[in-house]
Here is the input.
Amino acid sequence: MTAKLRTSWQGLRYRGGGTMIAWLLHRLGGLAMVVFVGMHVFASFLTQQFGSDVGTAMNIVYQSPYFQAPLYFLIIFHALNGLRIILLDTFPKLLEYQREVTWLQWIVFLPLYGLVVFFIIARIVSGE
Amino acid sequence: MRNRTVPQPAMSFEYIMWMFTRISGLALLFLGAVGLVMAFAMGGRTLLDLPTLARWTFFPNPNHVVNSNIPDVTQGWANAYWQIMQIVIAFFGISHGFNGLRVVIEDYIGNTIWQPMLRGLIFLIWLFFMIMAVFVILAS
Here is the structure.
């Protein structure tokens, strides 16, 4: 038990840097998307078959800018990180430059996510 | 650096799913790009806001955009092309997601009796969502 506690503590203190954060975000975003897509399919089913208001209520939550902003972050990050993993798996020699590739990934990510944030803020400002 | 002998990947379940994760991920990016371009071609610039655009990108189904500004969503969207696109996207998306869930869970439980049980449970949930998605697509 103590050994288990100690390893958990070490796991929390483990400083993997940018690539560890990428791994963590990839995993969290993936799990969030499984729940999100699952609820979506379920809401579509309820709306179509029973004309239920549950689907519409869910849509209103999904459409809120405060829900959208973190969601787009996770989705775009998951997509770009997945591309990085595929790239490094296909060309293992690039693993030597893993840190640099992770920085490159953030450089690609920022303008893409910035565009989305721009649209979201524009929508809040216009008051829809 | 000395040379290592890397064993040839066998056609195991893990290897097939490893491959499937990559192929389905790339396929989702491609299908999403097709959906996005088509949504713009069909008036996305003026008729769709950002959430609705995202919906058309990944799941172009009339039931999915009931509260958007499009006057008649069934016009031009409910045809065989989009139904096939939706089924392919739903298959890749749901399978990719539940396989990822399986990988995460099996990372933490290790090789115990729970592993095959949870694997079976995830398979059943996957089947449930696949049937529901295909049902929604074909019935709309």
